[in-house]
């Protein structure tokens, strides 16, 4: 089975690396030629065009930033006939792993399925670390028989973490949305609580030592507070990405008529942080907006 991969950033490159390590023949494409060359150095076959990729691969993964990019990759720039859907033969499989709305992924699926191309909605979670380790959480939605055809491929990138969550395309994105809402909400409350505690006179190291053993602790606290204390805001999942993801969650809530009170507030908090200049920094930089208001800086010894 020949695998195609579009989008070779931090996530895509490492996903490709794990496909190669598991013995798959992988063909890669990215708008940045250097990104393609980087995958060639680890054994992938770089291609020059999306049409070439669609003609060559049996299964194509799309891992780009947003729906605009997904649409351009699948249907060509402004529908110019140079996209994947214009070259993939009937029976081939298109897997979209980008985070988009359920409505958007269904829109793409409907059009490609008219052309006889099978479609799988399969967002991922786990970040760069999960991509490197091959332990991404793969949340596949679509026909079960299609999932079974590509299950081994998915497991190469999501060892012990590959799930068929629904037959309904779009529900993979709903599952991903749960995770994004919980991460963002966790970061907002960690930012508020830790800023309050430090301004009250507690040391960050002490806060970490005690709260990391308490029932209220969460993964965001464990992962981000040590980085905050080192003032490491290198983007792993930027603030602005979470604004997009929270917007998707709110749209889902609106569509199914389910209230999203907390998510709406958290989106405003993230928007505020972006307006403060931290949009391209890591999720943990949300706390910098709170620091600015409290007139403190949370630093500490390395944990």
- Report the major sheet: 6 strands, parallel
Low-confidence stretches: none
Structurally, the number of domains stands at 2
CATH superfamily of the largest domain: NAD(P)-binding Rossmann-like Domain
Distance between the termini: 45 Å
| CATH topology heading of the largest domain | Rossmann fold
Assign the structural class, choosing from mainly alpha, mainly beta, alpha/beta, alpha+beta, or little secondary structure.
alpha/beta
Strand order of the largest sheet: 3-2-1-4-5-6
Shape: elongated
* Rg, nearest Å: 20 Å
Give the number of DSSP strands: 9
Q: What percent of residues are in strands?
A: 5-15%
Helix content: 40-55%
Describe the structure.
The structure is a single chain. With 303 residues, this protein is an alpha/beta fold. It has two domains: 2-169, NAD(P)-binding Rossmann-like Domain (Rossmann fold, 3-Layer(aba) Sandwich); 175-294, N-(1-d-carboxylethyl)-l-norvaline Dehydrogenase, domain 2, CATH 1.10.1040. The protein is 54% helix and 12% strand. It has helices spanning 10-21, 33-40, 50-56, 67-75, 102-114, 127-133, 144-157, 171-199, 204-211, 219-229, 239-256, 261-278, 286-294, and strands at residues 2-6, 25-29, 45-46, 59-62, 93-96, 118-121, 124-125, 137-141, 162-166. The strands form two sheets. A six-stranded parallel beta sheet has the order 3-2-1-4-5-6, with helices on both faces. Helix 4 links the parallel strand 4 and strand 5 (93-96). Helix 11 runs antiparallel to helix 12. The radius of gyration is 20 Å and the shape is elongated. The model has no long low-confidence stretch (mean pLDDT 97).
